[in-house]
Amino acid sequence: MRGETKDLIRQATGQAVVGARPLAGGCVGEVLRVELENGEIIVAKTGEAGGGLAVEGRMLSYLSEMSALPTPCVLYADDRLLLMTYIPNSGGLNARSQAHAAELLAALHGVTAKNFGLDFDTPVGGLRQPNTWQASWRDFFRDQRLLYMGRVAMDAGRLPGRLFGRLEALAGRLDKWLDGNEKPSLVHGDMWTGNVLCRGGRIAGFVDPAIYYGEAETELAFSTMFATFGDSFFRRYHELRPIRAGFFEERREIYNLYPLLVHARLFGGSYVQSVEGTLSRFGF
């Protein structure tokens, strides 16, 4: 840990750092488990100006204020340094913890708004995620998710222009799958295994959000992209918030185009092929 970071932590907490070791995660900087001189354990994320740590702190505080979702408490946040409480965790997801996750996320998705979006833009995977309020979910998902991230990936040289044209064609026909009955729900926004902390068959906490008010099915869809959740989760979630017909058959893949585009922008390769596969599957 750099001396400058130690000084910032001391200024923010009033305690000197006596030990630090790396933790997994972090798209925008280093993540550290930090021991303070009073014995307290905290988490420090470091970054550069404009790197998004201040917004991450704002998102965690928003989740804490608006929901009962277990998340780290923010101790200090600016773009150079984010300090949070440490959530002890061990082990991975099992049937019990997946059912618990379903209960927590069903409650989160019960937090609603008048429109889709958020008062501020949020980062996902270190990329800007626009959240201008819109009344129509179809328009929001088309313009601020599919077409926006498709252009970002194309401009970065990751997504071929011919594929973006096919994406535009599908985006213009979303009415085939999105019927206008979607309701705004507060979503975590980056629901994969690395952001879910478990302990003793329960969920200890969720980290690294990318929040906004969107259709809750986007959260469910992404949770299947890397096999984060399975039958135990979906059984319990459906008991609490029934999943409408057509999600598993079609809408899940439509919604997963967005995280595929995010990953295509970040990594290219097989994610571009997956985007093409989804477009082909729906006839575009």
Order of secondary-structure elements: HEEEHEEHEEHHEEEEHHHH
* Sheet with the most strands: spatial strand order: 1-2-3-5-4
Low-confidence stretches: none
What percent of the residues sit in helical stretches (DSSP H or I)?
A: 40-55%
Domain module count: 2
Commentary on this structure:
With 284 residues, the chain is an alpha+beta fold. It folds into two domains: 3-85, Phosphorylase Kinase, domain 1, CATH 3.30.200.20; 95-281, Aminoglycoside phosphotransferase (APH), C-terminal lobe (Aminoglycoside 3'-phosphotransferase, Chain: A, domain 2). The protein is built from nine helices and eleven strands. Helix 3 packs parallel to helix 7, helix 4 (137-155) packs antiparallel against helix 5 and helix 8 (247-267) runs antiparallel to helix 9. The mean pLDDT is 95.
What is the fold's blueprint, element by element?
Blueprint: H1 3-13, E1 17-22, E2 31-36, E3 41-46, H2 53-66, E4 74-77, E5 81-85, H3 95-109, E6 122-124, E7 127-129, H4 137-155, H5 161-171, E8 185-187, E9 196-199, E10 202-206, E11 212-214, H6 217-225, H7 231-240, H8 247-267, H9 270-281
Antiparallel strand pairs: 1-2, 2-3, 3-5, 4-5, 6-7, 8-11, 9-10
Helix pairs in contact: 3-7, 4-5, 4-8, 6-8, 8-9
In short:
The chain has 9 helices and 11 strands. The protein is α+β, with helices and mostly antiparallel strands and 284 residues long. The chain folds into 2 domains: 3-85, 2-Layer Sandwich (Phosphorylase Kinase, domain 1); 95-281, Aminoglycoside phosphotransferase (APH), C-terminal lobe (Aminoglycoside 3'-phosphotransferase, Chain: A, domain 2, Alpha-Beta Complex), CATH 3.90.1200.10.
